[in-house]
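Protocol step 4 of 5: obtain the predicted structure for the target chain.
Materials: sequence only (see below). No template structures provided, no constraints applied. The aim of this step is simply to have a reference model before the mutagenesis design in step 5. Sequence pasted as it appears in the construct record:
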Amino acid sequence: MIIISGEIQSIAPQFDCAVAAQNIMLAAEALAIGSCWISAASVITQSETGKKIIAGLGLPAGYAPFSSIALGYKKTPSPTAPLRREGVVHYIRPKQE
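Step 4 output (structure tokens):
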């Protein structure tokens, strides 16, 4: 499991950690490692038990966990992506004068 923490006083630590989580999950997939985003990390840390667990992680002062990811080897191969449907995306562009 990877716990992703961010500096509480930064502009948007929850979004920074979400982007980091996505990149970790994409990298894991490239290595044929399965991943699961566990978004309850920030909620769980509000309990007394959660606070004790977080204190034991040794995070720097001013940092808090915002998400976590479970990793593991897959039992089955990833499914093949379906074919893309044509004509579903429409681009809106300004008129050329």
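Step 4 remarks: The chain has one domain: 2-73. The two ends are 55 Å apart (CA to CA).
Proceed to step 5.
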